[in-house]
Amino acid sequence: xxxxxxxxxxxxxxxxxxxxxxxxxxxxxxxxxxxxxxxxxxxxxxxxxxxxxxxxxxxxxxxxxxxxxxxxxxxxxxxxxxxxxxxxxxxxxxxxxxxxxxxxxxxxxxxxxxxxxxxxxxxxxxxxxxxxxxxxxxxxxxxxxxxxxxxxxxxxxxxxxxxxxxxxxxxxxxxxxxxxxxxxxxxxxxxxxxxxxxxxxxxxxxxxxxxxxxxxxxxxxxxxxxxxxxxxxxxxxxxxxxxxxxxxxxxxxxxxxxxxxxxxxxxxxxxxxxxxxxxxxxxxxxxxxxxxxxxxxxxxxxxxxxxxxxxxxxxxxxxxxxxxxxxxxxxxxxxxxxxxxxxxxxxxxxxxxxxxxxxxxxxxxxxxxxxxxxxxxxxxxxxxxxxxxxxxxxxxxxxxxxxxxxxxxxxxxxxxxxxxxxxxxxxxxxxxxxxxxxxxxxxxxxxxxxxxxxxxxxxxxxxxxxxxxxxxxxxxxxxxxxxxxxxxxxxxxxxxxxxxxxxxxxxxxxxxxxxxxxxxxxxxxxxxxxxxxxxxxxxxxxxxxxxxxxxxxxxxxxxxxxxxxxxxxxx
Length: 571
What we know:
Elements: H1 2-15, E1 44-47, H2 50-61, H3 66-80, E2 90-97, E3 102-108, H4 130-134, H5 145-155, H6 161-164, H7 166-174, H8 180-188, H9 190-193, H10 197-203, H11 219-231, H12 234-237, H13 239-251, H14 258-262, E4 267-269, E5 272-276, E6 279-283, H15 290-301, H16 311-332, H17 343-346, H18 349-357, E7 383-388, E8 394-400, E9 458-461, E10 465-469, H19 476-489, H20 494-499, E11 503-504, E12 512-514, H21 521-529, E13 534-536, E14 544-549, E15 554-559, E16 567-570
Parallel strand pairs: 12-13
Antiparallel strand pairs: 1-7, 1-16, 2-3, 2-8, 3-4, 5-6, 6-9, 7-8, 9-10, 10-14, 11-12, 14-15
Helix pairs in contact: 1-18, 2-3, 3-5, 3-7, 7-11, 15-16, 15-18, 15-19, 16-21
């Protein structure tokens, strides 16, 4: 009874917005980082595939900048890593333009077609239809990646698309040796790929998945990329490619129109910026939920000195901050062009003060005391790459087709597998999507609306060092990037940041996912006594990081050791 009364008092204190008692206990100045006054003189790229990283350097060697290299990396990943991203999907980019000392955010997120109908994603009994939400053309939003790459070339690059897309076109036409991840993804989704003749033709040559070490080609995608290189937006969103997309989607029961394609637009938005103990974090705004959640978590944690805590209490406060940020993620966030969100409140340090007061120093907060709901185990797909060029331009891009191999639906003649991003909408309010994330009407599908995302491409600027950071991982993207930022602030180099052991809490289910080695036995036992349910989980994520040490003017790049196929390289 006394514990319940204590919670009641604490929660009333939060609602009334009283100031944070913890904030005054460990004051640390939150200051603007020093301006970037120098250039590295060399470049660093970290991506999920060695061929993509090398494609970026190939374009830099032709006189391109980080933005041209980003086009080469993203398009090559579309060819060699279609299980995670591609021309049939979308991306979000947080960028620093060195010449103007300006930070920008590019929203090339997919959008709902005009004919979207929530009833298409329901079973007769009103429960979510997971098949239409995840497989086939009804699961696909209008792709944004092709338009995003054209936008980068037109507004920020130095080279024509014919140059920056050349490595991807060559790789698709001449072929490459698929890695174990791609082969495994095709094997896992073989039954779904077999449902669509064009999908089977691309990914099941001779009726079987490709074999590691043998050459795999996608000449149709090479042609699609050639059309994009020659004609820009119209090479994908109108003309030959658009017609192929519409015919294939309609033939399989989808509802796209040529107007859906021709009306798609890239949007530049103002990135979210948050100061944390002398570090400036530049990150993704809505329709990404990631930047808001990361900012909210850091604002809560800013009232503590994590460096002075033992592992148990550090983990405790980080988990509790995660819990509260994901609760708000579920309730408030959506496409800013459709939904009015209380961002001033969510990003306010005063709001964080109130949330901080609801955290007990020695006890877990049951999520049921914040709001009752349900969820599932988070997933891990998507891709991320980071680039810093010789002039100090920076690109942090997270790209996706959502779930593994997206919708598994390839539009005949395009070689492009379409996304299944419609599942990222709250198709049924307060019912979890494939990643266990919940949503409200703020993220309900509407014509032209962009679905909420966890993608969190970020740039971190400290007094002496700068990091470009991000990761795939569904709902775990947010916590991975958060923990990577904290590891960087603690002084970690690129390899230490990407290798940092992870844990994850997303409000519901009320479980802490723990990577083996993240906590020692004593810490796990202490957290369990505090009321946490810990769940061991196989390693997750594919973080790619480039760090610029402005004292030595050296770059450091690393790809996640959990996946052997990535490459972080400096030259």
